[in-house]
Amino acid sequence: MSAVLLDAIVALDARVLAGHTAQAGDAFDAADHRQKVAASLETSQLICVERDGRHVAHTYFRPLAEGRWFVGAFSVDPAHRNASVLAEIGRRMAAIMEDEGIETLESHVYRTNELSLAFHEKLGFERFMENEKGFALRIERARLATSALGRRLGGRR
Q1: Cβ(113)–Cβ(53) under 8 Å?
Q2: What is the pLDDT of residue 108?
Q3: What is the pTM of this model?
Q4: What Rg, from alpha-carbon coordinates, does the chain have?
Q5: pLDDT averaged over the chain?
Q6: Is the Cβ–Cβ distance between 88 and 94 less than 8 Å?
Q7: What is the per-residue DSSP string for the chain?
Q8: Contact of 104 with 137, CB cutoff 8 Å
Q9: b (16+ CB within 10 A) / e for 118-130
Q10: I want to staple 62 with a disulfide (CB 3.0 to 4.6 A). Which of 2, 10, 44, 119 is the partner?
Q11: Which pLDDT does position 1 carry in this prediction?
Q12: What would the mean pLDDT of 28-32 be, rounded to a whole number?
């Protein structure tokens, strides 16, 4: 992975996550985050979305166990939170899930991040655990196809 792409990922994460992280009582340290992202991406599948040559969204997920993977990030620039970007992420995510034999994706979202929670649920994720800080969500590959987004995509890859 190039340093430029890693910088773009960390910069977008800082813009969209720092406030929610602070509201949840945790600290967002960009240098620490950069190291964690770099380490995670060594074993992750990465999806990046660009518009007009600019990095506007990314997600990456890594294996936890056979057929079960964890989403390390869903970050979308606020100016690009639209159906086109969401559909591209969903379509590419479904293709990777199929290609890699991923049956379940899991993710965590702070309670303070209502937009991310809504985004996950639009993709078809369901809550399966919670604590005082946030929610654990998951989606089965078959559910992605039947979610509102999946129906709109109509199986397109």
Answers
A1: no
A2: 95
A3: 0.86
A4: 15
A5: 89
A6: no
A7: --HHHHHHHHHHHHHHHHHHHHHTT----HHHHHHHHHHHHTSSEEEEEEETTEEEEEEEEEEEETTEEEEEEEEE-GGG-SHHHHHHHHHHHHHHHHHHT--EEEEEEETT-HHHHHHHHHHT-EEEEE-SSEEEEEEEHHHHHHSHHHHHHTT--
A8: no
A9: ebbbebbbeeeee
A10: 44
A11: 75
A12: 94
Question: Letter for the amino acid at 6?
Answer: L
Residue with tokens 């991923």: 102
Among 6-15, 76-85, 141-150, the range of highest mean pLDDT:
6-15
Asked if residues 5 and 53 have their Cβ atoms less than 8 Å apart, the reply is: no
Query: Which CATH number, 3.40.630.30, 1.10.760.10, 3.30.420.40, 3.30.428.10, labels domain 3-153?
Result: 3.40.630.30
Q: Are 10 and 38 in contact (CB under 8 A)?
A: no
- Determine the residue type at 65: A
The CA distance from 139 to 118, in Å, is 14
